[in-house]
Structures are given as C-alpha cells and as structure tokens.
Design brief:
Blueprint: H1 3-16, E1 21-24, E2 29-32, E3 37-44, E4 49-54, E5 57-58, E6 66-71, E7 74-79, E8 88-96, E9 99-110, E10 122-126, E11 130-134
Parallel strand pairs: 2-9
Antiparallel strand pairs: 1-3, 3-7, 4-5, 4-8, 6-7, 8-9, 10-11
C-alpha cells in the first residue's frame, strides 16, 4: 500500500467516525393559511437518520399533509395546505452512530391578505433617477 493509499484510507475511516453536523440551520417562517410551508436545513455526516418533530413530538407520515426530502444532506419538510394548527416549533433531529444534533425553527401562520383592497403603488428608482410607479 502506498503512502497516498494509506492517507486516503485514513481519511475515509476518519470521515466514518464523524458525528452529524448542521451546516445551515432551519430558519423561522411566516406563511399564509392554505399555502405550503417549506423548512430546509443542510447537514453532513455518514449514515445519518433524520426525524422531524413538531413541538417536540415526531411528525407522523401523512403524504397529504407532509413531504420529507433528503438529497445529499439537504433536508426539507414541506407542510401542505397550512392551517392555524400548523403554527408550531419544528425540529430537524439528525443522528448517526457517532452522535446527534438538531436545529429548530418556528412556523407562524397568518390569515390570507384581503385581495379586495386596492394595492398601493410601488415606486422603483432606475438609473438616471427616473421614478416609475408599478402596481404588483
């Protein structure tokens, strides 16, 4: 075995001994009722197991309500058709044989904006200091 091969093997073994680590944490969100909320974090570590919690309790698998994603350490929870009962503290709990970690965020649910009210104009400044008005 060459020096390079030994080094690669040592690095592989060292990687397998690492506990999970959160690279980017969940961020708290505020969403309108009857929309979809998405909570996302990024983790690293070998052979991780993921569990999502709502107010400290495991979230049951209900495909009509929750969708779970794990793509190379990018973890997401989608909450479909959000209602007031979905306002809670959500935790992404990650563990492997070497340790565990978690990240937490809160979800706030608000009523839909009244679409009957007129929308005030938005002013945008563009090069040359010309101001335009646009209704979005």
């Amino acid at each position: 075995m060459t020096e390079k091969d030994r080094d690669l093997e040592w690095q592989r073994q060292r990687q397998m001994m690492r506990p999970p680590l959160v690279i980017s944490h969940l961020k708290s969100r505020a969403v309108a009722i009857n929309t979809t909320a998405k909570l996302t974090c990024n983790v690293t570590g070998p052979q991780i197991a993921v569990r999502w919690l709502k107010n400290g309790n495991p979230i049951e698998i209900k495909p009509e309500k929750y969708k779970f994603f794990n793509s190379e350490g990018l973890l997401s929870l989608e909450i479909l058709n959000v209602n007031k009962r979905d306002a809670a503290e959500y935790t992404c709990f990650v563990k492997n044989k070497n340790g565990e970690t978690s990240t937490v965020a809160s979800l706030t649910v608000y009523d839909n904006v009244d679409t009957e009210r007129p929308i005030p104009p938005t002013f945008i400044t563009i090069k040359g200091n010309k101001t335009f008005s646009a209704n979005w």
